[in-house]
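User: Second chain of the day. Same drill as before.
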Amino acid sequence: MNDSLDRRRFLRTAVAGAALSAVGFPARLTAMAAPPRRAGAPQKIIVIGAGMAGLSAALDLIARGHDVTVLEARTRPGGRVFTIREPFADGLYAEGGAMQIFDSHVRVQRYLQQFGLETDPIRPAAGTSIMHVMGKRLATKPGEPVSWPFAMKADEKALDARGLWEKYAHAAVQEVADAESRDPSLRSLEKYDRMAFAAFLRAQGASSAAVAILATGLVSGLGDGADRVSALDLLREAAHRQARKQSFTIRGGTDRLPRALAARLGDRITTARQ
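Assistant: Same format as last time:
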């Protein structure tokens, strides 16, 4: 996300360049009826990172006949998908990372079917919701105004989280959706790829409190690593979510998905030692 080497330029020049089409943009991918054909001689390819993108890229490259090794700096595969299972009783867990799957996520839906993973629909909470923002515990109820205990701009104080999202991010989300319909590479919007999501919100005029509220994921569900993750990545994901009809969780924990992919890769994955 800087001028010298942004994410897109890195992907275009990486040795695993074939993985770009494999990872691509999940909402546009369809199920593959048969393994893809390999173009040219098989290659030895290193995939950096065993998150969902790295795991899926590795599987697709292997299907094309390449010799793939996946290197992961953590002690586990999964990346942002992190299900916390200890010190809870057996069968209990909490999600410490990404947890929602949408019906617009065609590639993920294909994996769920392939590995026989069951899902449960996410329903809006009917009662009070508890959230923590900037060290504050906030209780909100549907239909009731939110009284933010932060120093905010005058035109922000009366807005709930949805209103803040509409004010600072909605227009850019639509801009990304329109641009992607014309050019899936989104080269025309590389300006958003050179800044983190939090920096994008500040550039739109959001106060520090508004940035914290939105980055917590109260509206977008995309707040993970807002000071580090590309604004374009999150805006594009939000654009895809506009087309969704239903969101889901994976029954038994979200980490069941990357674990299934990692099991298929076997000893091709090298993680850090504990």
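The first strand starts at residue 44 and ends at 48.

User: Great, on to the next one.
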